[in-house]
Amino acid sequence: MKKEDTVKLISAEGMEFVIDKEAAMVSQTIRNMLTSPGGFAEAEHGEVTFPEISAVILEKICQYFYWSLQYSRFGFFIFYFLGSVSCFFYL
Amino acid sequence: MSNQKKRNFQIEAFKHRVVVDPKYAEKTWSILEHAIHEIYNHNASGLSFEELYRNAYNMVLHKFGEKLYSGLVATMTAHLKEISKSIEAAQGDLFLEELNRKWNDHNKALQMIRDILMYMDRTYIPNTHKTPVHELGLNLWRDNVIHSSKIQSRLLSMLLELVHRERTGEVIDRGLMRNIIKMLMDLGSSVYQEDFEKPFLEVSAEFYMGESQKFIECCDCGDYLKKAELRLNEEIERVTHYLDVKSEVKITNVVEKEMIANHMMRLVHMENSGLVNMLLDDKYEDLGRMYNLFRRVPNGLSTIRDVMTSHLREIGKQLVTDAEKLKDPVEFVQRLLDEKDKYDSIISQAFSNDKTFQNALNSSFEYFINLNNRSPEFISLFVDDKLRKGLKGVSEEDVEIILDKVMMLFRYLQEKDVFEKYYKQHLAKRLLSGKTVSDDAERSLIVKLKTECGYQFTSKLEGMFTDMKTSQDTMQGFYASHPELTDGPTLVVQVLTTGSWPTQPSITCNLPAETSALCEKFRSYYLGTHTGRRLSWQTNMGTADIKATFGKGQKHELNVSTYQMCVLMLFNNADRLSYKEVEQATGIPASDLKRCLQSMACVKGKNVLRKEPMSKDIGEDDAFFVNDKFTSKFYKVKIGTVVAQKESEPEKQETRQRVEEDRKPQIEAAIKRIESLIERDFLERDNNDRKLYRYLA
Question: Which GO biological-process labels does this protein carry (chain A) (predicted)?
């Protein structure tokens, strides 16, 4: 993966997840974050810190991103995936 | 494993930290307020999106959305007021640039702010029906900057100033204009319309009112239209470059009204350069321009059409009543055709083949052609001229073109039956004298007439052709059955069916012995094969070829009329004959005889007879001799042609009378038909207008 195509997501504990930008931008919030004009810190450095999200959750989120990219065209209901976790995230 | 294990699992809501800190909202808001400041100050790179987003999110979640929103409004408003001041401070032309720059800054900031406040935008705002962040930002800009008292009027006057400068030929910064106008459009169509478009249209109307006044005083029609067209195109171009596309039709309406509609009549009737002059001089480009400009305004085209129609009728009327022109019918018809060609050309090249103009042309021609009641006769004479000699050597396609043009004139005639009468006469003369240039052309015209008017119209004409053909066969049969006659004078008979041919009074004269014997043989041959018919010789219509030897031995072959032949043959048995003797011997009616003698004794180059006295007129006491001194360059000399001529006044009266009589039975038949339809309740008379009939269901 090229550096320019990736973004680093950092959990509350400091664990770093390096994923494709395309995957990260499944989240509208992250998309806004990275494409907002004016150069917020995250876009400048290509790193997003989530001080309130634990590594476990963040890992699951990253898996969801990739799953979403792969299966989004089949219109799967999100429930089938969420069924395996018992938490709620703001995405 | 317990048997009481739950089968369905539940998703529990995420439990947030309970807010303990009473100043939580304050603290959180001040972080965000600070961030907004930094954003407006171009200092965003130090900020963490995630942190700001989270804070905004938390505020909304903990029911502090109200505070967040009102804080946003206040902060933004404060910033915009400052921005306003800095724009006001800009001098002269820099005003618009500063405005544009600040607008771009504001947009960027607005987007960033909206991004971090996205959660509020999606949840709090719809729930409370407040204005979304982006729209809020635009509204605040509009209220605090654009509509600030010091900026609003200055902005408008600068924009109008620039437009005016461009109209007077200066180059302006179109990119800047486009951005400013786009800003107004983004702020809402009512802003664009009230703060720019309406005043723009008013000012433009004044400008063009002045322009048109200035031009119309000093330009001729063609130049004025060129200028109007230029201005119109300029405005359309202006719209594509920096105005809202919806303004195009509005501004073009202004130009059209001020420059064209208001001066329409003056332009069309302008002396020396108006519509009539353009028509006379075939100014296709100017006419085309006028057409394209006038079609944009109400009644524009109808104005052009009306003036063209009345002009056409005027010159048409002059044409058909000008005594000079009427002296030569062929010339007259040619002039008509030329005029039609000219206007066809104008309509196709300048008026884009507009059907309404074509109709106006047709109705005008129909009007003036029928003003002169000799038009049918003249058109027939024109055709006669063409079929006798005019079409000699012309290609087949060109022949068709000319005949089609004749048909076109024919269609305009109201008295088509008059035309038929004359045509029949002229055709008869052509056929009998063998003087037609092309049989194909003759038949082609008959077919066209048939297509136009039906079988009835041309049945007799076709009968005439048939008679000619049949006569040829008859002559062959005659000579085949009388082989002993092949050494004598050759007889050619055309048997004409009465009714197909124009009625002629049947006049006989005394034929010379050789001829009359031959004629009798033919008569008995013909009646032998066709029982129940009657033959009468039309001696006034025939021709003869005679070989003559004159005093000095010069031989000539003379082509003469039958009457002339009778007269000449007398001189085989006499050297001198008086008028009275000739009259008695031949039995030719007096007026015809005088004409006949005149053509042989008084016409230079054809004077095979000598007359004493040598006066021009034939007197009852004149004496005639063979002119032994007769000379001619040619061996074959033609005397006595039977050319179709313009009718004299009494002849004209006679023809017209016959036409009227022929119409009577047709009209009576039509009346009878109408009466029977009324009786049988297919028609009824209109109650108010005695001239109107109505169809009944």
Answer: jasmonic acid mediated signaling pathway; protein ubiquitination; ubiquitin-dependent protein catabolic process
